[in-house]
Write a structure and sequence with these properties.
Layout lengths: L16 H11 L1 H11 L2 H23 L4 H5 L3 H12 L6 H16 L12 H12 L1 H5 L14 H10 L8 H4 L11 H10 L4 H4 L13 H17 L6 H20 L7 H6 L3 H8 L12
Length: about 300
């Protein structure tokens, strides 16, 4: 008798890696559309740049390794890496940011370790960490939600801003980030963190327009959209419920504990659940079949 040892992802049943990755990509569509609605077409360009870069880099490395390019690209793992990283990048980040992050994710974080199943960490998030460390300004320059924006701009303006740094009318990316009150706004999480260091209470900080009614205009609905996609993945048995519930439950517990102990310096649990990338991380990153926690059958 022989023991067959194969790399992850391990899955029993009629499904395969290509179908699983395709389901995950489709599950991001509600959040993808929501991000475009609240933050503009720059999201579309970032996802396109990262996805194309991922496929090209994967093909080049597979060629160098003398692997079958067509068969390996059909597993959709490279495409998923590009989509996840593209959704993580600010809409108006320069075009080369996505290319550098995605190339590093595919070439170093994935293929250098031997390809699918051999990588130690989620490639998309390794690419994101590289970008966050190397280009912190570009990676934290998220746009203000469109309904609070001082300027209105077209599809061409987004394209021009990403590739040249200016819109067709000559506005810079920093000018595009100005809200209706003329103040450049960070994300709700950044705003709250900064305000707390300045001596404001969480209640005073969250009275600002960017927070909206619950957890930040746009961001709360983006998180809801990611949760909907994640629940669909659980329903399709692409992922299990254990990891998302553990992530969300842990965040809920500690945020509630902090809020009960000192509500002036801690935001509400619902704010933490529906702001930032909570649902994205819980359903789409922590559950990565190649790097997530596994259990014995």
């Amino acid at each position: 008798m022989y023991l067959s040892v194969t790399p992850s992802p391990h899955r029993l049943g009629s499904s395969n890696t290509s179908r699983m990755m395709r389901h995950v990509i489709l599950a991001t569509l509600p959040a993808f559309a929501t991000l475009i609605y609240f933050f503009g077409y720059g999201v579309l360009f970032q996802v396109a740049i990262c996805s194309i870069t991922a496929l090209i880099c994967e093909a080049v490395i597979l060629k160098i390794r003398s692997k079958n390019i067509a068969i390996n690209l059909k597993d959709n793992t490279a495409l998923l890496t590009g989509v996840l990283l593209g959704l993580s990048i600010p809409p108006l980040a320069p075009w080369w940011v996505g290319i550098i992050g995605t190339a590093f994710a595919i070439i170093v974080a994935k293929q250098l370790y031997g390809g699918l199943g051999f990588n130690l960490f989620n490639p998309a998030m390794i690419g994101y960490v590289l970008l966050l460390i190397s280009f912190p300004v570009a990676m934290t320059n998220w746009m203000v939600p469109l309904e609070l924006s001082l300027h209105s701009f077209s599809f061409i303006d987004y394209l021009s801003a990403i590739f040249t740094g200016y819109t067709s009318s000559g506005l810079t990316v920093n000018e595009l980030r100005h809200g209706i009150d003329g103040i450049t706004m960070a994300t709700p999480l950044d705003t709250l963190k900064t305000d707390l260091t300045l001596g404001l209470t969480s209640g005073e900080s969250m009275s600002k327009s960017i927070f909206g009614d619950i957890a930040g205009i746009g961001w709360q609905w983006v998180n809801v959209a990611f949760a909907i996609g994640g629940l669909a993945l659980i329903k399709l048995k692409v992922i299990r419920w254990h990891i998302p519930c553990a992530v969300i439950g842990s965040l809920l517990f500690f945020s509630l504990l902090g809020y009960l102990l000192d509500p002036d310096s801690h935001a509400t649990p619902i704010f933490h659940l529906l702001s930032g990338a909570t649902m994205f991380g819980a359903f789409f990153i922590a559950t990565d079949p190649g790097t997530a926690v596994i259990r014995a059958a």
